[in-house]
Specification:
It is built from five helices and five strands. It has 200 residues and is α+β, with helices and mostly antiparallel strands. Helix 4 runs antiparallel to helix 5. It is flat. The termini are far apart.
Length: 200
């Protein structure tokens, strides 16, 4: 009987065959694994491209025009006072002409510079002062002019005798000897064909 049981177990093993690994059937032999693209990615790309085109089209429809850079000129009196006279109520357009500022004397130019802050006329007055060899000092907030050639000149400063405009106490020109004009305090945003504070 024991011998019969051994024979039945042997025949059962032969029928089952060797153990098989199911993982080997996951992919056929000779077929490489490839990435499968999701069609939704292509739809997202198309949507993004279309959105960019729409934004570009909208921006082209709203391009700035040349007149957009021109500020409207509306005169507003700084200290308005109600009175009825035939006096002008707005500045004449002639004061927008740079050539007119060439005819003003120094007092008029200094007055426009200090009392018309932030206006085109202040810019024109400053430009005309620079044409007449005046240079603005950013620390002392006033204008200087060489009275004579500097006694000392370096890359950082020059030293000598200067004329400066006293706008605080006397509204006049004064002489300053042995003055050191440091170039770091030289206002040079209004470009003129000069080097440092030399005469034009």
């Amino acid at each position: 009987q024991q011998q019969q049981q051994q024979q039945q177990a042997a025949s059962s093993t032969q029928m089952q065959g060797p153990s098989m690994n199911l993982a080997s059937f996951a992919q056929p032999m000779g077929v490489e694994e490839t990435d499968v693209e999701d069609p939704r990615d292509e739809r997202d790309d198309d949507h993004s491209e279309q959105l960019v085109k729409e934004l570009l089209g909208a921006s082209f429809q709203n391009l700035p025009q040349t007149h957009d850079s021109e500020r409207a000129k509306h005169y507003a009196p700084r200290n308005p006072y109600p009175f009825q006279t035939p006096y002008p109520t707005v500045p004449p357009p002639i004061f927008d002409n740079p050539n007119v500022f060439e005819k003003f004397d120094l007092d008029a130019l200094f007055f426009i510079f200090y009392y018309q802050q932030g206006t085109y006329q202040q810019y024109l007055a400053a430009r005309e002062l620079k044409k007449q060899s005046w240079r603005y000092h950013k620390k002392y907030l006033t204008w200087f002019q060489r009275h004579e050639e500097p006694k000392v000149t370096t890359d950082e400063y020059e030293q000598g005798t200067y004329v400066y405009f006293d706008y605080e106490t006397g509204w006049c020109q004064r002489i300053k000897t042995e003055f050191t004009f440091e170039y770091c305090f030289l206002e040079d945003e209004l470009m003129t064909p000069t080097s440092h504070i030399a005469a034009v």
